[in-house]
Amino acid sequence: MSNAPVRRILVALTALGALAVLAGCGGASDTSGGNAAAAAASGKPTLALVAYSTPQVVYDEAIPAFQKTAQGKGIGFTQSYGASGDQSRAVAGGQPADVVELSLAPDVTRLVKAGIVASDWDATPTKGFLTDSVVALIVRKGNPKHVKGWADLLRPGVNVVTPNPFTSGAAKWNLLGAYVYGGLPYVKQLISQHVKVQPKSGREALQTFTGGEGDVLISYENEAITAQQKGEQVDYVIPPQNILIQNPVAVTRTSKHPDEANSFVAFLESAAGQRLFAKRGYRPVDPSVAKQFHFPMPADLKTIDDLGGWSKVDDQLFDPDKGSVAQIEQDAGVSTAK
Predict the structure, then answer these.
(1) pLDDT tens for residues 98-112?
(2) Is the pLDDT reported for residue 54 higher than 60?
(3) Domain count, the chain
(4) Which residues pair with 160 in a beta bridge?
(5) 214 with 176, same domain?
């Protein structure tokens, strides 16, 4: 009997487990760590934070830390975490949000076009970015497949997990890292021959991998570090050919509490806030904090601007109707519906 049906069952169960975790500790109505009820009772505002899936571990610490400051005292929070593209579309569709932190700039651009985020959201010293990262290849403890870089993912018998780029911002970054290494021919071979499952978000992909699926997980460097901090039996490799991952943050124009929302973002951008992110494996955008942590610098690190900017990249690679990567995914039987 083939192992394929068993694998599909295990993946489905893992995905259900991931959804249960997300539902239990993140969501539009979730108030864990935010004291929203207490804030309402005291007449203080409650801020709605909508974010991509992976930084929840940081906000579990950052929100209480902000609430201990003079600016944050008494302020409550609701929190929603999920795949970046889905989160962006939800806010565009009416989900309340005072602060959004998303995986990549186009997910904020969607909110600019919807009139929810100001067009000058990126007119800051860090160009609107809260954290940086790079692509990592997460492997089983001891690296039994001896993965050292991108080329090793194409060896016979190596099965790869990476999220769906049409729901997950992490997945776009992952595939851009692969694209920097080997162009479209490499991306096509990787997806068609070695990627067996594509979960909805970066966090679900990690849960799928730690649940036993695959030999290598392509992910954020910070996800690898977080997994190790949580005791998962994983190692990771930073490929020399890589791309600088830049995660944006913005206060919405529709916020009823813009002063408090801006104070919260200012805290996240402060040295204290940046250290909280750095301890969880995110590369600080504050140079003074970055000096306090050691992150390896890939030898060939490209930026999205080196590839022509997001407008060009999205149009040529990820447009569902004409994008080259979209066609590769469709040929592999993966949904490119947004």
Answers:
(1) 999 999 999 999 999
(2) yes
(3) 2
(4) 195, 216
(5) yes
